[in-house]
Amino acid sequence: MTEENTQHLEAIQDIRNMMKKSTRFLSLSGLSGVFAGIYALAGGIVAYLYSKYIFTEWANNRTEHLDRNEIYFNFILIAVSVLVLSIVTAYLFSNKKAKQQGHSLFDHTALRALLNLGIPLVAGGVFCIALLMHGAEAYIAPVMLLFYGMALVNASKYTYDDIRYLGFCEIVLGLINAFNLYNGLIFWMLGFGVLHIVYGAAMWFKYERKK
């Protein structure tokens, strides 16, 4: 291959890289996925211990101090705490990565990715509230996994392709959980905890470690 051909190939590669950067959100940090997984596992453990406490009280007929709404509130508080911590961590790591790359975190590609991620997530959140109101708590975990998986697949068009595979895994877990309703917490911890840690670590090694 001549030197001129080599230069042409390098120029084409540069153009492809610029086009990719202009159409995809590439500031997402793998470390934020690892931390999100850790938060989810910690939240799952807290939820398990709280559930164990409630079942023990019911088994011993000590239910006078247990309020159904308070129980729901505590579980929601655990989930919201995990979500807030994950969002804050994702922002900090991704913002740092964006600065290292020399561009703004919230550009048009980031906004498109967030929009495509947010629509299924909001729909799934509202659906979970409806399930809670109708006493169908057992379906909440699989619904969360399914809608989250669809959100990731939907947003993957505007960020790393790897996110699509994480979304597929979340969907599969949600479908399996739908046939094993009373193991919801286990599947929730696998989907939001273990998968996030594995995915985040893989993303870090693939895209960030060398840099």
Word description of this protein:
By secondary structure, the protein is an all-alpha fold. It has one domain (35-208). Helices cover 80% and strands 0% of the residues. The chain has seven helices and no strands. Helix 2 (30-59) packs antiparallel against helix 3 (68-101) and helix 2 (30-59) packs antiparallel against helix 7 (184-208). The two termini are 29 Å apart. Mean pLDDT is 84; it is low at 14-23.
Question: What attributes does this structure have?
Answer:
single chain; elongated; mainly alpha; 211 residues; 7 helices
Number of separate domains: 1
Radius of gyration: 21 Å
Number of helices: 7
pLDDT averaged residue by residue:
84
Largest sheet features: none
Structural class: mainly alpha
Strand content: under 5%
Total strands: the figure is 0
**What is the helix/strand order?**
HHHHHHH
* Portion of residues within helices: over 70%
- Net shape: elongated
The low-pLDDT segments are: 14-23
Q: Distance N terminus to C terminus?
A: 29 Å
How do you describe this structure in short?
The protein is mainly alpha-helical. Helix content is 80%, strand content 0%.
